[in-house]
Specification:
Helix content: 10-25%
Radius of gyration: 22 Å
Number of helices: 3
CATH topology: outer membrane lipoprotein receptor (LolB), chain A
Number of strands: 11
Strand content: over 45%
CATH architecture: Clam
CATH class: Mainly Beta
Structural class: mainly beta
Largest sheet: 11 strands, antiparallel
Length: about 270
């Protein structure tokens, strides 16, 4: 039987609403996903740096990049200043900063105290692209891809569990790391012409942690997010989409205490 124009329009509307519902099933793993967790050490010593390889696999597509986060210390306003730099691997074990690209963040004391919303702790954001510096004011920084890759969202787990420690080798360091597992579930609903679409997202994060590693002590982090949808009542005209699965990983490649400013001069507050 040929579908009527009204039926076709109804189905297109249903797919549009569903696409909005499933556009981002949970925040992506980023450098600050676990910043509020009290069991993770917070190391903001001036001159510390840490390099991470970040990988993401979604629907067969893979994204791979390398980032450096380094702490420059406090500025004259007392804000902690971090640089987030893009790296390239010229050859195995040889990482080079991409010139003229990066991010400088000024974070207030609420970041150190791990309270409130992470975005509220951002006092200033300076972006370097193609060697040109710009300051992102207001909500501008929320829309920039490099910034959102570092601040895509915060994770509030429903359950927290410590598991057996593990040993990881990072450069010349052999580290016995504590391991934590976090899990959360979220339900979203959308009313469609065919019924109510219900999406349940399950997010699982596992982290290996050592206090010698700068920032949050993260030696290794994996996140697995699975989103499944059902239609109530079931319909033979409209089938829910297949489950969405996203797997992301942060792997520490190196860390040291020799960081110097890369994105222009920086005047550190006197001790």
């Amino acid at each position: 039987m040929r579908r009527t124009g009204r039926r076709s329009l109804t189905e297109r509307l249903a797919f549009l609403i569903l696409a909005l519902l499933l556009a981002e099933p949970g925040a992506a793993l980023d450098l600050f996903t676990l910043w509020q967790r009290p069991e993770l050490p917070l190391n903001l010593a001036a001159g510390s740096r840490v390099d991470y390889r970040r990988q993401a696999l979604t629907e067969g597509r893979r994204r791979d990049d390398i980032l450096r986060v380094q702490c420059l210390g406090r500025d004259r306003d007392g804000h902690w200043v971090l640089e987030v730099l893009q790296l390239v691997e010229l050859e195995p074990d040889s990482l080079v900063v991409v010139p003229g690209e990066g991010l400088r963040l000024h974070l207030t004391g609420s970041f150190v105290e791990r309270r409130g919303d992470l975005s509220a702790a951002v006092a200033e954001v300076h972006l370097w692209r193609d060697g040109e510096r710009s300051e992102l004011v207001g909500d501008e920084w929320r829309r920039d891809p490099l910034v959102t890759a570092s601040f895509s969202g915060e994770f509030e787990p429903d359950t927290v569990r410590e598991v057996d420690p593990t040993v990881r080798v990072i450069g010349a360091h052999e580290l016995r790391c504590r391991q934590w597992e976090y899990a959360a579930a979220d339900t979203q609903r959308a009313t469609l012409p065919a019924g109510e679409m219900v999406q349940i997202s399950r997010q699982e994060v596992a982290a290996a942690v050592h206090e010698d590693i700068p920032l949050l002590g993260l030696a290794y982090v994996t996140e697995r997010l699975r989103a499944e949808s059902t239609l109530d009542p079931p319909s033979d005209r409209f089938a829910p989409p297949p489950p969405q699965i996203r797997v992301e990983m942060l792997e520490c490649l190196a860390f040291a205490r020799d960081a110097t400013p890369v994105l222009g001069p920086f005047e550190r507050a006197e001790d």
